[in-house]
Amino acid sequence: MAESNAGAAGGGAIYGLGIFGALVFFWQQASGFWEHLYAVFQGIFWPAYLVYEAFSALVHRH
Protein backbone atom coordinates (compact mmCIF):
# COMPACT_ATOMS: atom_id res chain seq x y z
CA MET A 1 0.00 0.00 0.00
CA ALA A 2 1.27 3.46 -0.90
CA GLU A 3 0.99 6.23 1.64
CA SER A 4 -0.04 9.70 0.53
CA ASN A 5 1.39 12.93 1.90
CA ALA A 6 -0.79 15.20 -0.26
CA GLY A 7 -2.64 16.59 2.78
CA ALA A 8 0.59 17.52 4.51
CA ALA A 9 1.89 19.27 1.41
CA GLY A 10 -1.33 21.26 1.10
CA GLY A 11 -1.19 22.25 4.75
CA GLY A 12 2.39 23.42 4.35
CA ALA A 13 1.41 25.61 1.42
CA ILE A 14 -1.43 27.18 3.41
CA TYR A 15 0.90 27.78 6.38
CA GLY A 16 3.47 29.36 4.05
CA LEU A 17 0.84 31.72 2.65
CA GLY A 18 -0.14 32.57 6.22
CA ILE A 19 3.45 33.47 7.08
CA PHE A 20 3.76 35.62 3.96
CA GLY A 21 0.47 37.39 4.72
CA ALA A 22 1.46 37.98 8.34
CA LEU A 23 4.83 39.38 7.27
CA VAL A 24 3.12 41.83 4.91
CA PHE A 25 0.58 42.85 7.55
CA PHE A 26 3.08 43.39 10.37
CA TRP A 27 5.58 45.09 8.00
CA GLN A 28 2.97 47.67 7.01
CA GLN A 29 2.25 48.43 10.66
CA ALA A 30 5.93 49.07 11.49
CA SER A 31 7.55 52.51 11.23
CA GLY A 32 11.19 52.15 12.34
CA PHE A 33 14.10 49.77 11.98
CA TRP A 34 13.46 47.87 15.21
CA GLU A 35 9.75 47.68 14.53
CA HIS A 36 10.46 46.19 11.09
CA LEU A 37 12.80 43.67 12.67
CA TYR A 38 10.13 42.79 15.20
CA ALA A 39 7.59 42.54 12.35
CA VAL A 40 9.69 39.77 10.77
CA PHE A 41 9.69 37.92 14.11
CA GLN A 42 5.92 38.36 14.43
CA GLY A 43 5.39 37.20 10.87
CA ILE A 44 7.23 33.96 11.50
CA PHE A 45 5.55 33.24 14.83
CA TRP A 46 2.09 34.58 13.97
CA PRO A 47 0.19 31.49 15.22
CA ALA A 48 1.48 32.10 18.76
CA TYR A 49 0.31 35.73 18.62
CA LEU A 50 -3.07 34.62 17.26
CA VAL A 51 -3.62 32.13 20.10
CA TYR A 52 -2.42 34.63 22.72
CA GLU A 53 -4.81 37.32 21.48
CA ALA A 54 -7.69 34.83 21.30
CA PHE A 55 -7.13 33.68 24.89
CA SER A 56 -6.72 37.28 26.04
CA ALA A 57 -10.06 38.17 24.49
CA LEU A 58 -11.73 35.21 26.19
CA VAL A 59 -10.28 35.99 29.61
CA HIS A 60 -11.10 39.72 29.50
CA ARG A 61 -14.64 39.15 28.26
CA HIS A 62 -16.72 39.56 31.39
Notes on the protein architecture:
The chain is an all-alpha fold and 62 residues long. The chain has a domain at 32-62. The protein is 81% helix and 0% strand. The protein is built from 3 helices and no strands. The longest helix has 24 residues, at 6-29. The radius of gyration is 16 Å and the shape is flat. The relative contact order is 0.11.
Secondary structure topology:
Layout: H1 6-29, H2 33-44, H3 46-59
Total number of β-strand segments?
0
Strand-residue fraction?
Answer: under 5%
Query: Cα distance, first to last residue?
Result: 53 Å
For the biggest sheet, the summary is:
none
Mean pLDDT: 85
Number of helical regions: 3
Task: Give the class from helix and strand content and strand pairing.
Answer: mainly alpha
Share in helix: over 70%
**Segments where pLDDT lies below 50 for 5+ residues?**
none
What would you call the shape? Answer: flat
Radius of gyration over C-alpha positions, nearest whole angstrom: 16 Å
Give the SSE order as H and E letters. HHH
